[in-house]
């Protein structure tokens, strides 16, 4: 209805996976780099997880487009299969002929093994991509692991890409799947778009659709990011409804009123069963200030079967604090057998503990937890509110790893680091230590002249466009 009104040639915010509208944010590019690296390695399994609508399918399609011509691919879009159905589906996808009567797992496995060996002899790589993999049964995953046992001295003959929601991480931590989990050579957890990427995403799709001018004002872009939480699918739905609202209101540019109207409509359509997600949990939340004991992973590491069998106690402030911090980053429940700071590295996040002035902590622009005396926790929504007087000065936060930081090839990370530090150079050819010291002095960080975790956290927070940020209301008005 609104295409002619806005001079558009196509629907800019259709949720159909049209490759013409493909937009890869920094996070999507990072995910793509991890998956590509995994396919080049010698492992059998690659893992991509993320919340609903974050763009996992977008990344997988981009990956498949980059695969060399000598790649044979099999897609499993319905993971609700048993072992026999899985093997038969793989044979169908790879074009392997087999007798439909009296099929057995062994016959199907033999057919697949013969095909994989022949493909390898012809210089072809075989890849299986499974979407919604959190629904796979453990027995089916084990069957996949057995298929990847076929290998040469250099590599596996079959690569499996598992794509799913965060529950997939929990599934793979089951004891009977520990051998499969050890074979995952590349993994990435896709987080929602940051506000800057949200703006670029919207403007890019409008441009592809034929827009000759800006159709959303700046305040509307900020508000649509708030209501969507940076989730692309939700962004598409909101923007489509907002354009329709602007057409009905006969205004030339979408403003905050149209965004609010669209959000109310979507909430009404959902029956209010799915509340909006905000990266920090509330509209005006600028900082998660919670009380943290020195060991943030205590809750997940010290439970016992006897305790689990007992009545579930009320949630403590410690438990609530860890839960809120994880929710800010859209992370699943941590592994029980790993320290929290070690576990978050699986999600391309770093962990920083230290002592810093409160205003400098606010300047980090990251969700943090603070340690208070008395083993208690406090949550302060307003960053202008000083912490409890019992604050020890200690804090803990997660921060996004810079691009390329977790890849074997450090070139991307080194180039990124050089670009960020170059603005602090007083003269050409300054050493890294001098540039780092200048950054620390300018932003009130402890001056060590070393690229320590705190300095890297500041750089990553302000220059990667990744991770939840403090959402300050414009002109004192809550969104």
TrEMBL record:
<feature type="domain" description="AAA+ ATPase">
    <location>
        <begin position="42"/>
        <end position="185"/>
    </location>
</feature>
<dbReference type="InterPro" id="IPR049945">
    <property type="entry name" value="AAA_22"/>
</dbReference>
<dbReference type="InterPro" id="IPR027417">
    <property type="entry name" value="P-loop_NTPase"/>
</dbReference>
<dbReference type="InterPro" id="IPR003593">
    <property type="entry name" value="AAA+_ATPase"/>
</dbReference>
<protein>
    <submittedName>
        <fullName>AAA family ATPase</fullName>
    </submittedName>
</protein>
<dbReference type="InterPro" id="IPR052026">
    <property type="entry name" value="ExeA_AAA_ATPase_DNA-bind"/>
</dbReference>
<dbReference type="Pfam" id="PF13401">
    <property type="entry name" value="AAA_22"/>
</dbReference>
């Amino acid at each position: 209805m609104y295409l002619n009104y806005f001079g558009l040639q196509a629907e800019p915010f259709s949720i159909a996976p049209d490759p013409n509208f493909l937009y890869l944010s920094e996070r999507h590019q990072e995910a793509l780099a991890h998956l590509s690296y995994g396919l080049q390695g010698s492992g059998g399994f690659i893992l991509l997880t993320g919340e609903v609508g974050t763009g996992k399918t977008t990344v997988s399609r981009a990956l498949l487009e980059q695969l060399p011509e000598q790649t044979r691919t099999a897609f499993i879009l319905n993971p609700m299969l048993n072992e026999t159905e899985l093997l038969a589906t793989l044979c169908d996808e790879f074009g392997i002929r087999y007798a439909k009567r009296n099929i057995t797992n062994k016959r199907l496995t033999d057919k697949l093994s013969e095909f994989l060996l022949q493909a390898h002899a012809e210089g072809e790589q075989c890849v299986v991509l499974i979407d919604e993999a959190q629904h796979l049964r453990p027995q089916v995953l084990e069957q996949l692991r057995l298929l990847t046992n076929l290998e040469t001295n250099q590599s596996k003959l079959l690569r499996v890409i598992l794509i799913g929601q965060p529950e997939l991480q929990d599934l793979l931590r089951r004891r009977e799947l520990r051998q499969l989990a050890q074979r995952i050579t590349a993994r990435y957890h896709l987080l929602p778009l940051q506000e800057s990427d949200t703006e670029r995403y919207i403007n890019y799709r409008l441009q592809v659709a034929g827009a000759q001018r800006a159709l959303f004002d700046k305040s509307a872009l900020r508000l649509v990011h708030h209501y969507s939480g940076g989730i692309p699918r939700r962004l598409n739905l909101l923007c489509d409804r907002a354009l329709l609202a602007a057409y009905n209101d006969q205004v030339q540019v979408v403003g905050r009123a149209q965004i609010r109207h669209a959000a109310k409509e979507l909430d009404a359509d959902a029956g209010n069963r799915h509340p909006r997600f905000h990266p920090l949990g509330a509209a005006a939340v600028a900082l998660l200030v919670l009380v943290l004991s020195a060991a943030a992973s205590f809750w997940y590491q010290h439970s016992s079967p006897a305790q689990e069998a007992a009545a579930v106690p009320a949630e403590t402030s410690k438990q609530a604090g860890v839960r809120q911090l994880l929710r800010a980053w859209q992370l699943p429940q941590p592994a029980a057998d790993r320290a929290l700071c070690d576990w978050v590295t699986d999600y391309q996040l770093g962990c920083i503990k230290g002592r810093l002035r409160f205003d400098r902590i606010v300047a980090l622009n990251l969700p943090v937890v603070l340690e208070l005396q008395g083993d208690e926790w406090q949550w302060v929504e307003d960053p202008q509110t000083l912490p409890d007087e019992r604050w020890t000065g200690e804090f803990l936060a997660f921060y996004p790893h810079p691009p390329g930081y977790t890849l074997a090839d450090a070139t991307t990370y080194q180039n990124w680091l050089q670009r960020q530090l170059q603005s602090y150079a007083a003269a050409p050819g300054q050493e890294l230590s001098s540039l780092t010291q200048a950054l620390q002095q300018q932003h009130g960080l402890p001056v060590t002249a070393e690229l320590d975790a705190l300095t890297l956290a500041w750089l990553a927070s302000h220059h990667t466009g990744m991770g939840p940020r403090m959402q300050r209301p414009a002109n004192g008005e809550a969104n």
